[in-house]
Design a protein that fits this description.
The chain has about 230 residues and is of the alpha/beta class. The chain has helices spanning about 5-15, 20-25, 35-50, 70-80, 95-105, 120-125, 140-150, 150-155, 170-180, 190-200, 210-225; strands at about 30-35, 60-65, 85-90, 115-120. The protein has a four-stranded parallel beta sheet, sandwiched between helices. It is globular.
Length: about 230
């Protein structure tokens, strides 16, 4: 878009447009997330909370996976240009904070009548430090799904247990490093798909997911408040 101003950019996006309603599953109200894994997990958490009689995502909100933090900004401005309402959800890591700040300060402040906003995941669930969608789960639960989904790889590498890297950073990155150190190629999508299936089967709360349900309620409460 070169040096175009915000009005010109939104006009161009709308004109080139990518007729969004034809090319994407969008609605009047849209939640944009960084990746497909986020969309899978958020969808099934909302479904689980619905079965538990708890607060969920609004029924009329469509979830769109953008493909990275910078793409969330692009997709959000594209939808705003089409007159749609948007909540853009970012991971609380370096890339997420940078792109959330860009969307909020360079776009949303200039278009206050768009009924659109940005949310950092860590802020929404009340967790400090780096946070991604995987951090809605206790490490023991997530690590169990890693080992279940990577069983054959672990057997081939003669590894009995994945040892996450110690220290700071996203849990998923620490686990990915642990896999790499054991000679195992980490597949984050395979883990997310297994979690999605596990959540879809659950009809009641159990101790292993109490933390997750608590954090999911906080997340959905924040998202709902942004659409109100």
């Amino acid at each position: 878009f070169g040096a175009s101003g915000p009005d010109e950019k939104l006009t161009l996006q709308a004109a080139l447009g990518m007729k969004l309603n034809q090319h994407y599953l969008v609605a009047q109200r849209n939640l944009i997330v960084e990746g497909v894994d986020d969309a899978w997990i958020i969808t099934e958490l909302s479904n689980l909370l619905s079965r538990l009689g708890k607060q969920t995502l609004p029924d009329d909100v469509q979830i769109t996976a953008a493909g990275g933090a910078s793409e969330v900004v692009y997709m959000a401005t594209l939808m705003i240009g089409q007159g749609l309402e948007v909540v853009a959800l970012f991971d609380s890591d370096d890339a997420g904070r940078r792109e959330e700040n860009k969307l909020r300060t360079k776009w949303l402040l200039r278009y206050k009548d768009t009924k659109s906003s940005s949310v950092l995941l860590g802020d929404a669930i009340g967790t400090n430090g780096d946070v991604s969608i995987e951090d809605l789960f206790p490490e023991a639960y997530y690590l169990g799904k890693v080992e279940e989904s990577h069983k054959s790889k672990m057997e081939n590498a003669r590894v009995l247990k994945i040892e996450p890297r110690q220290g700071e950073g996203l849990m998923v990155n620490r686990i990915a490093d642990g896999c790499k150190n054991s000679g195992i190629q980490f597949n984050k999508g395979a883990v997310a798909n297994l979690i999605r299936k596990d959540l879809a089967r659950k009809t009641d709360a159990n101790a292993s997911l109490n933390y997750t349900i608590e954090k999911a309620e906080l997340l959905f409460q924040r998202i709902r408040s942004q659409f109100d």
